[in-house]
Design a protein that fits this description.
47% helix; eight-stranded parallel β-sheet; binds cobalt (II) ion; 436 residues; alpha/beta; 16 helices; binds D-xylulose
Length: 436
């Protein structure tokens, strides 16, 4: 099997190289902040976009050839697995992420789907050993089949809930079998179209019950990794319950799921929620729930999830700045939840897309390191809040100040005229001078 035989292995050649099949910034073994770039970035291939998506949209049929065999769905899945490892191997990507239905076809019954998964995961396990690749995370596709049109864990019908629970149980078992250290919940249709037909309180309670059961079962079968929730505000549903990082945090707190659950932040989901990618990462880091990243980008002129490959250096820099500050990845990594455009429809384009994304993050990592090593941004922020390090400010910070005490203190001040500049433009120009 040699699906990508016309494509060479991709290696680092440096910024001056004009070889399109080379990395100009991603130098896997070069050290940065004490780790190799490879260890820091932990790139992962998304099985669905990379191996399955044919470039369809609401107006058009597939434009990209993703057929691996015409001898039935199982043979296709097997050949797809060989192609996936050939692809990762040529790019030097160590991890992959998958939905159950990406790797093995759905059967007529859940039992048949599960048998398909057993057979294909045996093959994946042997390919992982052969190529030295790992699973970053697994998940269940509980949104494609029409049974899930009203949701899975938030379905108004208990049979749908039960079916989803059983499907997720198997997807978790397969993730564990393949050695994955994380399991993702993206609430594809866990939301509503209209409140006129929706019992939001029951739906959210049920969702929490499902996550609790999966957590408990996972721990019972020896899964020691993280569960992640991936926030997204809308699409496919009008309103999704896992709207953004703050909403998910409130949910995890309410239902006592913190500790086992962290967040998987996707760039384009952040922008759809009206936030920057960096904002969502910061919310996670501030609350100890930073888990993993779905690396992509949207388009400011389009209001949907375009899942484009990330190439904006400012974005990747500020992302890696937050990742470094959060202590780097543990069980998570950078999964390219991104697809080549419908018009970029050759095998070469698939490689160019990954090269562009990996280079953008490698460059972002180096730029973030520069900002941190330069120190001006950090020391500006520290100085901006220094009044909380002593006197009345320290009492406020420590939680020992009372309202009466603050009133007495304020009376002693006369007027307060100590507002100092936030120096936004100056700081932005420092970042630019370090980047370019
Ligand atoms: C959809 C999305 C999913 C999840 C996994 O917007 O991001 O691919 O990452 O189900
Ligand atoms: Co995603």
């Amino acid at each position: 099997m040699n699906f990508f035989k016309e494509i060479p292995e991709i290696h680092y050649e440096g910024p001056e190289s004009d070889n399109p099949f080379s990395f100009r910034y991603y130098d896997a073994n070069a050290k940065i902040l004490g780790k190799t770039q490879r260890e820091y970035l932990k790139f992962a291939m998304s099985y669905w976009h990379t191996m399955c998506a044919g470039g369809t949209d609401m107006f058009g049929e597939a434009s990209i050839e993703k057929t691996y065999s015409r001898e039935g769905a199982m043979q296709n899945a097997k050949n797809k697995a060989y192609a996936a490892f050939e692809f990762m191997n040529k790019l030097g990507i160590d991890y992959y992420c998958f939905h159950d239905r990406d790797i093995a076809p759905e059967g007529d019954t859940l039992q048949e789907s599960n048998r398909n998964l057993d057979e294909i995961s045996d093959l994946l396990l042997s390919l992982q050993k052969e190529y030295g690749k790992k699973v970053l995370w697994g998940t269940a596709n509980c949104f494609y089949n029409k049974r899930y049109m009203h949701g899975a864990g938030t379905a108004p019908n208990a049979d749908v809930f039960a079916f989803a629970a059983a499907q997720i149980k198997k997807a978790l078992e397969i993730t564990v079998k393949l050695g994955g250290n994380a399991y993702v919940f993206w609430g594809g249709r866990e939301g509503y179209e209209t409140l006129l037909n929706t019992n939001t309180a029951l739906e959210l309670d049920n969702m929490a019950k499902l996550l609790t059961m999966v957590r408990d079962y996972g721990r019972k079968i020896g899964f020691k990794g993280d569960f992640y929730i991936e926030p997204k505000p809308k699409e496919p549903t009008k309103h999704q319950y896992d709207f953004d990082a703050s909403t998910v945090l409130a949910f995890l707190r309410k239902y006592n799921l913190l500790g086992d659950f962290k967040l998987n932040i996707e760039a384009n989901h952040a922008t759809l929620a009206g936030h920057t990618f960096q904002h969502e990462l910061r919310v996670c880091a501030d609350n100890g729930v930073f888990g993993s990243i779905d690396a992509n980008r949207g388009d400011t002129l389009l209001g949907w999830d375009t899942d484009q490959f990330p190439t904006d250096i400012y974005d990747t820099t500020m992302c890696m700045y937050e990742v470094i500050k959060a202590g780097g990845f543990t069980n998570g990594g950078l999964n390219f939840d991104a697809k080549s455009r419908r018009g970029s429809n050759t095998k070469e384009d698939l490689f160019f897309s990954y090269i562009a994304g990996m280079d953008a993050f490698a460059l972002g990592l180096r730029c973030a390191e520069k900002i941190i090593n330069d120190g001006r941004i950090d020391s500006f922020v520290a100085k901006r809040y220094e009044s909380y390090e002593s006197g009345i400010g320290k009492k406020i910070k420590d939680g020992t100040a009372t309202l009466e005490e603050l009133e007495k203190y304020a009376f002693s001040l006369g007027d307060v005229t100590t507002n100092t500049s936030g120096r936004q433009e100056y700081l932005e120009s420092i970042v630019n001078s370090l980047l370019f």
